[in-house]
């Protein structure tokens, strides 16, 4: 602080003398408004002052942080404050940061007063450097360096450049647990997020040290011991040592295991508004079992849910352990149910497109009814199954002034449920794909589905329009109507040489059996016209000679489905199973039937919706009846390609056809029996943030098609199912749901291909939306 004034020095030597000035002036203000400056010094013209009051004004001005120097003097009975302001921050640049986002750094700097427009305070820079380095140290970047450069700018401004060298993440070389006697180190560290540096894995960062990760591992270690009865377990200390170059980390964890406890007595206490038998059913442990904290937590949740299903939504369950000298423990579950709770009002938010009614009709929890845990969870699950929302959250909110009422807030986040697109794509299987389509699973926010598609490939033209109303009646009976036209020409494909034209209309009704199960009844009227190519096989020519080229069929269908898939286009949880029967009735020209069974399920690996195991399978069987001896050849099943057994060319597996000319190349005939299956491990790519639209998986495919009846002179056709003919492949798939069109890549290697099989290592599709 500099104060230069002869008058002020005189005043200091004679503090008892007070003077009166005619005016007060402040010179040198640029940043601080003059009105605020006068408020800070606290006196004005014609006001008496002494040295103490002047000193207090100077102190107040300095405390604002705006000034680096202040001179006070009197001139012609005017008290003048001559100030020199600190520069303001005119520019703030952060360079070199990748690990921590610039927005996050700027937010932290702002809290420290370092942002454009604020006053530059040099004393805060060292604190900021230390804080930034501390953040990088917590992330395991011990070699990180932070430097700050200050540059002068015009108009009393300062430019600040923060240079960050993030360095390399320190690698964990060794993790050592000391004091463990009952369990070996490998078992104790099995579920750690941290791991010692081992074989190279580009998708893992487990060997990169981070303080937060180690703290989580210590909690995991404690949970392991508590789940195995060690109530006295304690982490005595955890030590982290660095190598001299700050690249290697050594972790030592000292533990005191104690001894395990078993259960001596289990009791219930408190008020039980429901029968004890129902509560005891939730108690899965018994006397003599080893104590487990995770099991206790499940029991508490089970008891809360059981009472919650009777309206006691805010039940409080506490467990009181009593240790005994013989290393047994008494557990008392203390239950405080509170009053029964009713739902006053249900509100919906976040559904800017979807009508409230679409959400409300999925609710099994009603307004004015008793609030039950199971109905609230069932409502959440039903809304998630719609596939219209990225997230669904149901929150209970107590009603002010009451103890027995809540409002239920349903908060959703909508996601795209359809598209309007024209696309040009390419598929290894279909060649060039030209398409136009409108697909809306939530048409006009009604929950109904409208779709129209027009697709043309090198071998097929496909036009279809359909409209499905899942709530044709208030009871959930659905109705769907569809029109379709398809023209196929397989002359240049790997299947039969023929052209097929089909046109038809379908009507179906679905009846709900439960929340997840549905029966669907339908009828389709279809006309099919077949034109054989120049070199038809014996099989197709025989069928055309026997039954003609034109067929008018009436196909009745019955299907049972059970679906609880969550996640929309790329599911992350649940299962689905569908069994179907299609019968071409005697009313039409052909009589045949087709039985189908498809099923799939997702399992979470390690409690994450990013690491998943997915299994799916499909079975199909068809045959003729009545006047039709066999399944029509154009209704045959095919296998191979991106949608069944990857690594083999599309529709190339199974029995081959036959020709009178032995020099004619055979092609896939298809079959009336289908068996395919897939097992996948789905995993996240570290550089991808939007896992809802991108999926990567390692897969194992298997399958083939078979036939019951072979043409008499076909030596390459065997009747019946031969499991030794199942083809297998392994590979990697990558799918991206882009805003324009889906994009999918498959890299597959056949495991047991045989002579005559057509294989493809790389298969992809672009723009094949419908």
From TrEMBL:
List, in alphabetical order, the GO biological process terms annotated in this UniProt record. Answer: Gram-negative-bacterium-type cell outer membrane assembly; protein insertion into membrane
Q: What are the entry keywords? A: Cell outer membrane, Membrane, Repeat, Signal, Transmembrane, Transmembrane beta strand
| PROSITE patterns noted in UniProt | POTRA
Cited InterPro entries: Bac_surfAg_D15, BamA/TamA_POTRA, D15-like, OM_assembly_BamA, POTRA
Signal peptide region: 1-18
- Location of the protein in the cell: Cell outer membrane; Membrane
Every POTRA domain range? 19-86, 87-167, 170-258, 261-338, 341-415
Report whether Transmembrane shows up as a keyword of the record.
yes
Q: Does the keyword Signal apply?
A: yes
Listed GO CC annotations: Bam protein complex
Q: Which HAMAP family match?
A: OM_assembly_BamA (MF_01430)
Q: Which family does it belong to?
A: Belongs to the BamA family.
Quaternary structure (record): Part of the Bam complex.
Summarize the protein's role: Part of the outer membrane protein assembly complex, which is involved in assembly and insertion of beta-barrel proteins into the outer membrane.
Name recorded for this polypeptide: Outer membrane protein assembly factor BamA
Q: Which organism is it from?
A: Marinomonas algarum
């Amino acid at each position: 602080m500099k104060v230069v004034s002869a008058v002020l020095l005189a005043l200091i030597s004679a503090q008892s003398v007070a003077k009166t000035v005619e005016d007060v002036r402040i010179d040198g203000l640029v940043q601080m408004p003059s009105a605020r400056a006068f408020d800070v010094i606290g006196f004005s013209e014609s006001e008496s002052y002494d040295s103490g009051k002047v000193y207090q004004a100077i102190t107040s001005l300095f405390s604002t942080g705006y000034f680096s120097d202040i001179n006070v003097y009197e001139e012609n009975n005017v008290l003048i404050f001559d100030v020199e302001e600190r520069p303001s921050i005119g520019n703030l640049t952060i360079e070199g940061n990748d690990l921590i986002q610039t927005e996050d750094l700027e937010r932290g700097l702002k809290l420290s007063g370092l942002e454009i427009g604020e006053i530059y305070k040099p004393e805060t820079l060292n604190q900021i450097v230390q804080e930034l380095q501390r953040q990088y140290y917590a992330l395991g970047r011990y070699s990180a360096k932070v430097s700050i450069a200050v540059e002068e700018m015009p108009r009393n401004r300062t430019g600040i450049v923060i240079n960050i060298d993030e360095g390399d993440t320190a690698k964990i070389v060794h993790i050592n647990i000391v004091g463990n006697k009952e369990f070996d180190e490998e078992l104790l560290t099995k579920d750690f997020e941290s791991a010692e540096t081992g074989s190279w894995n580009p998708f893992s960062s487990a060997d990169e040290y981070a303080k937060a990760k180690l703290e989580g591992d210590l909690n995991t270690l404690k949970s392991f011991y508590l789940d195995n009865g060690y109530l006295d377990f304690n982490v005595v200390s955890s030590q982290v040592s660095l190598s001299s170059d700050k690249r290697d980390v050594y972790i030592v964890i000292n533990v005191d295991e104690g001894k395990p406890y078993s259960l001596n007595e289990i009791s219930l206490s408190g008020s039980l508004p429901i029968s004890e038998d129902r509560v005891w059913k939730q108690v899965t442990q018994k006397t003599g079992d080893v104590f487990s904290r995770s099991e206790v937590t499940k029991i508490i949740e089970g008891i809360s849910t059981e009472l919650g299903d009777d309206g006691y939504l805010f039940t409080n369950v506490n467990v009181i352990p009593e240790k005994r000298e013989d290393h047994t423990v008494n557990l008392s579950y203390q239950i405080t149910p509170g009053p029964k709770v009713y739902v006053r009002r249900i509100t919906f938010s976040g559904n800017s497109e979807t009508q409230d009614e679409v959400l409300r009709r999925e609710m099994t929890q009603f307004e004015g009814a008793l609030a039950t845990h199971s109905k609230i969870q069932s409502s959440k699950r039903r809304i998630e199954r719609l596939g219209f929302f990225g997230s669904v959250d149901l929150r209970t909110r107590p009603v002010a002034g009451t103890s027995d009422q809540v409002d239920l807030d349903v908060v959703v986040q909508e996601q795209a449920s359809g598209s309007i697109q024209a696309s040009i794509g390419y598929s290894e299987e279909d060649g060039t794909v030209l398409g136009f389509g409108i697909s809306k699973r939530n048409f006009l926010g009604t929950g109904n589905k409208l779709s129209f598609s027009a697709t043309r490939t090198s071998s097929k033209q496909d036009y279809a329009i359909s409209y499905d109303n899942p709530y044709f009646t208030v009871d959930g009976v659905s109705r769907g109507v569809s029109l379709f036209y398809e023209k196929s020409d397989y002359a240049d494909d790997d299947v039969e040489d023929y052209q097929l034209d089909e046109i038809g209309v379908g009507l179906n009704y679905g009846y709900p059996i439960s929340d997840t199960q549905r029966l669907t009844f339908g009828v389709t009227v279809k006309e099919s016209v077949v034109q054989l190519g120049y070199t038809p096989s014996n099989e197709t020519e025989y069928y055309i000679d026997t039954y003609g080229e034109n067929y008018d069929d009436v196909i009745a269908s019955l299907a049972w489905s059970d679906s609880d898939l969550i996640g929309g286009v790329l599911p992350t949880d649940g299962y689905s199973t569908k069994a179907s029967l299609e019968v071409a009735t005697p009313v039409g020209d052909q009589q045949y039937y087709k039985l189908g069974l498809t099923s799939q399920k997702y399992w979470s690996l390690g409690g994450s919706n990013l690491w998943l195991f997915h299994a799916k399978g499909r079975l199909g069987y068809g045959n003729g009846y009545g006047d039709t001896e066999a399944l029509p050849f154009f209704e045959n099943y095919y296998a191979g390609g991106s949608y069944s057994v990857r690594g083999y060319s599309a529709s190339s597996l199974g029995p081959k056809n036959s020709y009178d000319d032995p020099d004619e190349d055979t092609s896939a005939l298809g079959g009336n029996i289908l068996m395919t299956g897939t097992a996948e491990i789905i995993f996240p790519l570290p550089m991808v943030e939007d896992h809802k639209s991108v999926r990567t998986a390692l897969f194992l495919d298997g399958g083939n098609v078979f036939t019951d009846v072979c043409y008499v002179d076909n030596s390459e056709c065997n009747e019946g199912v031969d499991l030794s003919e199942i083809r297998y492949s392994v590979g990697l798939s990558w799918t991206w749901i882009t805003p324009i069109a889906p994009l999918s890549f498959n890299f597959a290697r056949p495991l047991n291909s045989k002579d005559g099989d057509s294989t493809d290592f790389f298969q992809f599709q672009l723009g094949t939306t419908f």
